[in-house]
DNA sequence: GAGGAAAACCTAACGGCGTTAGGTAAGTCA
DNA sequence: TGACTTACCTAACGCCGTTAGGTTTTCCTC
C-alpha cells in the first residue's frame, strides 16, 4: 500500500526523536542541565553529531522540546493527583497535589531546573513550549479560587499576590532541596519534608478569620 | 629597598586578579553565569587565554573565588544593614535586613545564582569558599534565636525547621523574581515586593500565641 | 651597571564543542 | 527501472579550556 511505508518512516522518525530526548535527559541527569552536549547525545546513539540536525535544528531546540514536555508532564501529574484524590475539601486536595508535585520535581530534577530556574545560557523557551507550564499555573490559580469560594481563603490568596507567594514558597522549598540535598526523598529531605508546614503557613496567613492578618508593614 | 619591588609586584598581581574577577562578573551579567569563557575574559583584558592560568589554575577556580567573595559580600551586607538599623526590635530588624539582603541579591544576580542555585555544570565550591556563606547563615540563625528569646517566636523558628523554611521562603521569592522578571527593582518586582508579606507569614506562623498553630498535617 | 632569577606573557598545539556544507547509500513509490 | 526522499556520513569552520614550552620584561643581588 501507499501509506504503509510512509507511516513506517514517520514512525521510525518519531522514535528517533524520542530516543534523542531520552538520551538528552539521561545525560543532563549525570552531567548537569547546562552541560548537555550534542556530541555526547550522538555518541550514545551511535551517530555522528551532524546527523542530529535531521531531527532538531539546534541544541536549543532540544531544550525547547524538553521544556514543553516538562510542562505537559507536570501539568498532568498535578491533574492526575487531583483526579485520584477522593475528597472535595480544597485544603486536603492541595495537600495531596502539592505532595504529588513535589515528588514529581524530586524525581525529575532535570525538568524542574529547566522549567523553574532559567539557567541554560542561551536558551529562552518558545511561546508554544511555555504554554503547558502556564496552563499548570492557571490550574493552580483556579484551585486557589475554589478555596476562596469555599471561604477558607481570603480573596487575595487567588489574586496575583497569593499566586506569586504560593509559587515562591513551594518553589523555594523545592529549590533548596534540589540545590543542597538532591538525593533525598520526599519524606527524608531536609527541606521538602517541611512542605506541609510551608503550606500551612500559606493557608493560615490567608485564613479569612476575623481581623486582617496581613497588616504589619511598617512603612 | 628589598621589599619595595616585591610589594609592588605582588600588588600589581593582586590588581590583575581583581581585574579578572571583575571582568568575569561583567561577562556573566551579560552572557549568563554558566557561559563564562576564559577566552572572553582574556580578550577583554588584552591577553591571550593561557596567560590567565598565571592567576587561576582553571575556570572553576574563578567560580570558586567568586563564590567565596559573594559569600563575604552578602554576609557583610546583612551585618551592615543590622548595624545601621537603630532598633532593638528583632522583628523590625529582620524587616530591615531582609530588605537589604533582597536588594543586594537583585543588584548582584550573578553572585546570587552562583551562591544559591547550583547551576554551573562542573563546579562545586571548596570548603574555604563555602565558609562565608555559612557564617551568614549562622548570623541568621542567631537572629532568629533572639526572636525566640524575646518571646516573639516559638523555639522551632530558630531550629533546623525554622531556618530551612526561612531560607526557602526568602530564597524562593528572590529566585522567582530573578527567573521571571530580572530587571525589576525591589519596590516594583512582582515577587520581591511581596517579601514583607512573606516575612509576615513566617512570623505569624511561628508566633507563640496560645495554642499550636502548626498542627494540621493529615497523616 | 652586570648577571641571574622569576614573573608575565606569548605562540603552538591538543582534543573537544556546535554547526554548516556537501556527498553517499538506502528506502520508497510511480 | 528510474526518480525522489530520507538517513546518515565526512570535511571543515571557528569557537572553547587547557598544557607545553619559549620569549620578554621586571626585579633583586652582586
Describe this structure in words.
- Chains A, B: InterPro entries: Homeodomain-like_sf (IPR009057), HTH-type_TetR-like_transc_reg (IPR050109), HTH_TetR (IPR001647), Tet_transcr_reg_TetR-rel_C_sf (IPR036271).
- Chains A, B: It comes from Kribbella sandramycini.
- Chains A, B: GO terms for molecular function: DNA-binding transcription factor activity; transcription cis-regulatory region binding.
- Chains A, B: Residues 37-56 bind DNA.
- 2 copies of one chain form a homodimer.
- Chain A folds into 2 domains: 7-57, Arc Repressor Mutant, subunit A; 65-210, Tetracycline Repressor, domain 2.
- In chain A, helix 1 packs across helix 2, helix 3 (59-84) packs across helix 5 (109-116) and helix 7 (160-180) runs antiparallel to helix 8.
- Chain A is mainly alpha-helical and 219 residues long.
- Chain A starts with a helix and ends in a 14-residue tail after the last helix.
- The first copy, chain A, is built from 8 helices and no strands.
- Chain A binds chain B through residues 31-35, 92, 95, 113, 116-122, 160-161, 164-165, 167-173, 175-176, 179, 190-191, 194, 196-198, 200-202, 204-205, 213-214, 216-218, and chain B through 31-35, 92, 95, 113, 116-122, 160-161, 164-165, 167-173, 175-176, 179, 190-191, 194, 196-198, 200-202, 204-205, 213-214, 216-218.
- Chain B binds a DNA duplex (30 and 30 nucleotides) through helix 1.
Amino acid at each position: 500500500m501507499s501509506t504503509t511505508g510512509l507511516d513506517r518512516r514517520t514512525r521510525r522518525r518519531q522514535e528517533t526523536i524520542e530516543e534523542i530526548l531520552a538520551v538528552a535527559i539521561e545525560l543532563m541527569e549525570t552531567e548537569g542541565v547546562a552541560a548537555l552536549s550534542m556530541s555526547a547525545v550522538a555518541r550514545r546513539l551511535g551517530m555522528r553529531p551532524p546527523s542530529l540536525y535531521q531531527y532538531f535544528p539546534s541544541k536549543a531546540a532540544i531544550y525547547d522540546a524538553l521544556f514543553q514536555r516538562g510542562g505537559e508532564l507536570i501539568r498532568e501529574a498535578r491533574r492526575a493527583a487531583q483526579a485520584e484524590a477522593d475528597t472535595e475539601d480544597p485544603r486536603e486536595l492541595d495537600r495531596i497535589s502539592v505532595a504529588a508535585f513535589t515528588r514529581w520535581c524530586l524525581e525529575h530534577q532535570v525538568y524542574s531546573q529547566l522549567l523553574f530556574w532559567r539557567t541554560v545560557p542561551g536558551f529562552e523557551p518558545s511561546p508554544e513550549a511555555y504554554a503547558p507550564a502556564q496552563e499548570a499555573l492557571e490550574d493552580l490559580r483556579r484551585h486557589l479560587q475554589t478555596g476562596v469560594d469555599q471561604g477558607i481563603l481570603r480573596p487575595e490568596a487567588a489574586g496575583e499576590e497569593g499566586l506569586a507567594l504560593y509559587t515562591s514558597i513551594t518553589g523555594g522549598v523545592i529549590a533548596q532541596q534540589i540545590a543542597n540535598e538532591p538525593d533525598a526523598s520526599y519524606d527524608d529531605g531536609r527541606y521538602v519534608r517541611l512542605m506541609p508546614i510551608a503550606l500551612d503557613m500559606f493557608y493560615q496567613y490567608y485564613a479569612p478569620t476575623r481581623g486582617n492578618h496581613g497588616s504589619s508593614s511598617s512603612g
